[in-house]
Amino acid sequence: MAAKIVVACGSGVATSATVAYKVKKLLAADGIEADVEAVAVADLDEALKDADAYVAVVRPDGEFDVPVFNGVAFLTGMNQDEELKRLADAVRDK
């Protein structure tokens, strides 16, 4: 079964979709199957109900029941390798 990863930004359109595509591609290259969904922050609570991880493009507000990862790292490439390793370790074998 594929891991479910939620990526959220303000509108759930441009930035989160870009990060979601990149995360899915990077995880696939590492042999990890994942369903990566881009959503608006307003829809985050509902989207996280059955998620394995949350990649936050904007600073997360509050606490979550799933591990949270820095989406800006995937957008800019800065610290991307470290964040990808953390994410892969969290969702591997889900």
Structure in words:
The chain has a 4-stranded parallel β-sheet. Strand 1, helix 1 (14-29) and strand 2 form a beta-alpha-beta unit. The protein has 4 helices and 4 strands, in the order βαβαββαα. With 94 residues, it is of the alpha/beta class. The mean pLDDT is 93.
Concise account of the structure shown:
The chain has 94 residues and is α/β, with parallel strands linked by helices. The chain contains 4 helices and 4 strands; from the N terminus they run βαβαββαα.
The secondary structure category is alpha/beta
The profile of the biggest β sheet is: 4 strands, parallel
Tally of individual helices: 4
Q: How widely separated are the two ends?
A: 6 Å
Radius of gyration: 12 Å
What is the string of SSEs from the N terminus onward? EHEHEEHH
Percentage of residues in DSSP E strands: 15-25%
What are the low-pLDDT stretches, counting only 5+ consecutive residues below 50? none
> How many β-strands, per DSSP?
4
Average pLDDT level: 93
Keywords: Sugar transport, Transferase, Transport
Protein name: PTS sugar transporter subunit IIB
InterPro entries: PTS_EIIB-like_sf, PTS_EIIB_2, PTS_EIIB_2/3
Pfam families: PTS_IIB (PF02302)
